[in-house]
Backbone:
């Protein structure tokens, strides 16, 4: 799982076209996963095409709009598992307090993938 941070709004459909499975996000970031190795390989192929020479007859690099919108790609980590509102609340506590949390779990609609 990775977090993609964008400098501009990116539509969910564009992420799916790039071979990414969207788990969570907003218009400026997305938590994504690759459901299998071929999808990850395809992402790397598109990145290599974007990084390479501009093909003859084209004005822009392949997949330029998508990759140019990405500011940062980072691993999904502990900071992504708590909302900003909850983090601020916990930071302001002066003594321990019982919190009730609404936890959302992601299930990929495929038992085989869920077990992996």
Residues:
């Amino acid at each position: 799982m990775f977090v993609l941070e964008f400098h501009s709004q990116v539509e969910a459909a564009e992420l799916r076209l790039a071979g990414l499975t969207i788990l969570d996000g907003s218009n400026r970031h997305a938590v994504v996963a690759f459901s299998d190795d071929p999808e990850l390989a395809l992402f790397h192929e598109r990145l290599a095409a974007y990084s390479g020479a501009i093909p003859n007859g084209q004005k822009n690099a392949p997949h330029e709009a998508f990759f140019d919108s990405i500011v940062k790609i980072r691993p999904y980590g502990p900071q992504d598992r708590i909302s900003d509102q909850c983090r601020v609340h916990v930071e302001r506590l002066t003594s321990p307090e019982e919190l009730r949390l609404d936890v959302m779990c992601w299930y990929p609609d495929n038992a085989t993938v869920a077990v992996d």
